[in-house]
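User: Let's play a game. I give you a shape written as C-alpha cells, and you guess the letters that built it. Ready? Here's round one.
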C-alpha cells in the first residue's frame, strides 16, 4: 500500500516553506538554572571504546558515582537517558553516564526504578534487593500510562539496544485497533501486557534508526507497518513494510482515523516523519524533537525543547524548519524516541518553546539545503 499526499496538502506544504522566520528570542534559562545537557558524538565514541576495552567483571562493576544502596548503574551505561526520565527521583546524569544519585525510598519510587531497570537497553541497572512483588508490579505497569491529559497513550518501556535505547509508544484506540509508534524490545512480558491492552494493528516507524524488533511485533500481531518509502531498507527488513509513504505529506492515517496525521519532518534523517494525535494533543516525534535534561539534576517534565544537533544524519537547518512546521498542529505533548518527553501548557508556551529552540541553535532556516542523497 502506498500513500501519497493530496494536491491540497501539497499547496499547504508550499505555503509552509514561505513562512517568515520566527521572532529572535533568546533561550530561556532552564528551570533548574543548569544549561541543557547536549550529548556529543565524539564523547560517545570515546565512551563506547572505553566500555569495549573493559573486562567482563569491570563492565558489571558499579560506577563509583552511585550513592550507596541497593540500586546501582554499572560501567556499561550507554547514556541513552531512559532511566533518568522514567525514574527521575533515582537516576541522574553524572559525567557521560547515568548513576543512582538518590536511592528510591517509597514503593512508587522503587517500582519506577525497577521499571527503569527492565527498560535499560544494555542491562546496566542492578539491584541487590530484588523484591518479587515489586518486580511483578513493575512488569504489570509497562506499558505505563503517559499523562492524565492523554488517556490511551502509553510509554512501553523495555527499550532495545538495537535502536540505541529508543522509546516505543502505544496508542490505544478501542474499536479501531492500537498503534505502536517505533519499536520497543520484543519482550514476552511486554507482549503479554500489550495483548491485554488490545494488541497492535499498526506499527508506525518514524524513521530508519528506531525500528529494532519491528518484524517481530508485526508478525506476532499481524500488524501493518508504516514507514516513508525512503526510510525503508532491505537490511533492516523495513522494505517489507505494508504501508509506504511517498512524497512530503501530510498523510491521513491509513484506516481513516481523522485524529491521526502523519507529518513529514526531514532533518534528523532525510525522510523522517512524526505522528500527530489531535485527540491526545500529542506528537510522537521519533528522533526529531525531544526535551532537555541537565547534568546531575533530577529531570522534571517541562516545556523546553531540544534537538540532538550532534546526532544529525541529514541537516540541522532542515530539522529546525521541520520543528517550526509543527506549529501548524495543536500539540501539548512531545513523546520522543530519544531524550525526555515534553509538555507545554498552552499554545503560547508552545510558540515560546519553539522560538527558544530555534534561537538557541541560531541557524538561519533559509540556509537549509534542498539536495538529498541519490537513492
Ligand atoms: S537506561 Fe541504562 S543505558 Fe540508559 S542511561 Fe540509564 S543506565 Fe544508561
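Assistant: Ready! My guess for every position:
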Amino acid at each position: 500500500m502506498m500513500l501519497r499526499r493530496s494536491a491540497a496538502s501539497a499547496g499547504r506544504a508550499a505555503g509552509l516553506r514561505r513562512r517568515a522566520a520566527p521572532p529572535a528570542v533568546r533561550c530561556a534559562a532552564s528551570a533548574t538554572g543548569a544549561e541543557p545537557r547536549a550529548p556529543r558524538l565524539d564523547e560517545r565514541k570515546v565512551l563506547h571504546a572505553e566500555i569495549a576495552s573493559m573486562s567482563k567483571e569491570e563492565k558489571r562493576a558499579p560506577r563509583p558515582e552511585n550513592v550507596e544502596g541497593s540500586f546501582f548503574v554499572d560501567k556499561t551505561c550507554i547514556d541513552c537517558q531512559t532511566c533518568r526520565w522514567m525514574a527521575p527521583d533515582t537516576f541522574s546524569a553524572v559525567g557521560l553516564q547515568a548513576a543512582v544519585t538518590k536511592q528510591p525510598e517509597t514503593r512508587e519510587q522503587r517500582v519506577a526504578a525497577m521499571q527503569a531497570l527492565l527498560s535499560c537497553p544494555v542491562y546496566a541497572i542492578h539491584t541487590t534487593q530484588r523484591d518479587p512483588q515489586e518486580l511483578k508490579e513493575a512488569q504489570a505497569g509497562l506499558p505505563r500510562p503517559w499523562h492524565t491529559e492523554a488517556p490511551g497513550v502509553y510509554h512501553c518501556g523495555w527499550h532495545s539496544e538495537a535502536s540505541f535505547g529508543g522509546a516505543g509508544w502505544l496508542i490505544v484506540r478501542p474499536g479501531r485497533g492500537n498503534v505502536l509508534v517505533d519499536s520497543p524490545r520484543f519482550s514476552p512480558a511486554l507482549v503479554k501486557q500489550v495483548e491485554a491492552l488490545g494488541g497492535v494493528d499498526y506499527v508506525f516507524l518514524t524513521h530508519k534508526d528506531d525500528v529494532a524488533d519491528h518484524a517481530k511485533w508485526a508478525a506476532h500481531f499481524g500488524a501493518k507497518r508504516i514507514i516513508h518509502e525512503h526510510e525503508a531498507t532491505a537490511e533492516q527488513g523495513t522494505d517489507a513494510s505494508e504501508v509506504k509513504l511517498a512524497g512530503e505529506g501530510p498523510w491521513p492515517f491509513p484506516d481513516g482515523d481523522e485524529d491521526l496525521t502523519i507529518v513529514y519532518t526531514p532533518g534528523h534523517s532525510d525522510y523522517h516523519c512524526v505522528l500527530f494525535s489531535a485527540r491526545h494533543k500529542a506528537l510522537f516525534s521519533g528522533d526529531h524533537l525531544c526535551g532537555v535534561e541537565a547534568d546531575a539534576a533530577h529531570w522534571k517534565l517541562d516545556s523546553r525543547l531540544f534537538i540532538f544537533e550532534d546526532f544529525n544524519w541529514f541537516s540541522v537547518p532542515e530539522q529546525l524548519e521541520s520543528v517550526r512546521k509543527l506549529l501548524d498542529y495543536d500539540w501539548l505533548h512531545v513523546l520522543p524516541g530519544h531524550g525526555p518527553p515534553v509538555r507545554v501548557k498552552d499554545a503560547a508556551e508552545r510558540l515560546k518553546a519553539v522560538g527558544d529552540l530555534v534561537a538557541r541553535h541560531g541557524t538561519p532556516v533559509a540556509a537549509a539545503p534542498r539536495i538529498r542523497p541519490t537513492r
